[in-house]
Specification:
The protein is an alpha+beta fold. It has a single domain, classed as Double Stranded RNA Binding Domain (2-Layer Sandwich). It has one helix and five strands, in the order βββββα.
Length: 76
């Protein structure tokens, strides 16, 4: 069982990125990402590249989310 510890939200290129850090049972941190785009579409992904600390996991999640948002914008 994993524990959810807080949520973080930020704006990037008009999209809202919501991050939920999670402490896994193996002691590593990961984060789940929910992105809301201005056109009302959404995207969810997560449990990728765990980190040894919550900050490291959130940094990994933010990097991946920002890359996804940038590629989503290019398609339009």
């Amino acid at each position: 069982m994993s524990n959810t510890l807080g949520k973080v939200a930020q704006k990037y290129m008009d999209a809202t990125i919501n991050l939920t850090p999670v402490l896994r049972t193996d002691g590593k941190w990961t984060a789940f990402v929910h992105i809301d785009f201005p056109d009302r579409t959404t995207h969810d992904f997560g449990d990728f590249k765990p980190g040894n600390t919550k900050v490291e996991a959130l940094q990994n999640a933010v990097t991946a989310a920002e890359k996804y948002v940038a590629s989503h914008k290019k398609k339009k």
